[in-house]
Design goal:
Number of strands: 8
Low-confidence stretches: none
Number of domains: 1
CATH class: Alpha Beta
Order of helices and strands: HEHEEEEEEHE
Oligomer: single chain
């Protein structure tokens, strides 16, 4: 049985936010590290740390909450899946929730936000959206 590691990351973050956890641990990979780094730069999470455990690493994500304890991440969604890849040229990348969210896109220039892809005029595979 094959599991989608990016979908697993999104599900763990979504569940931890609904349960009001301060942090969540996920198995690390370079793609997950890039996605979480973008989330931190865009203000969706507080911080993240990479811990080594033997051969594998663990990515610890510290979630961010608003003043009344509501999660900053209101939703995350996997767009491109292993069974159905979604590619878009730079001029057709949709805005997420009217610009209140963002897409994470894998391009030839690396993993970037939807706005960076539009600015650099480069399309790619839409990995996930967050709002």
């Amino acid at each position: 049985m094959y599991t989608d590691p990016i979908a697993d990351l999104l599900t763990r973050v979504r569940n931890a936010g609904m349960a009001r956890h301060r942090k969540v641990d996920v198995p690390s990979s370079q793609v997950k590290l890039s996605i979480v780094d973008i989330w931190k730069k865009q203000g969706f999470i507080r911080d993240f740390r990479l811990y080594r455990q033997g051969q594998k690493g663990v990515l610890r994500i510290f979630l961010k909450y608003a003043s009344k304890g509501t999660p900053v991440i209101r939703g995350v969604q996997r767009v491109s899946r292993p069974s159905r890849r979604v590619y878009m040229p730079h001029d057709r990348i949709p805005k997420v929730h009217g610009g209140m969210g963002m897409s994470v896109i894998s391009t030839s220039k690396g993993i970037v936000t939807d706005q960076m892809a539009r600015d650099n005029r480069v399309g790619g595979e839409i990995l996930c959206t967050i709002w």
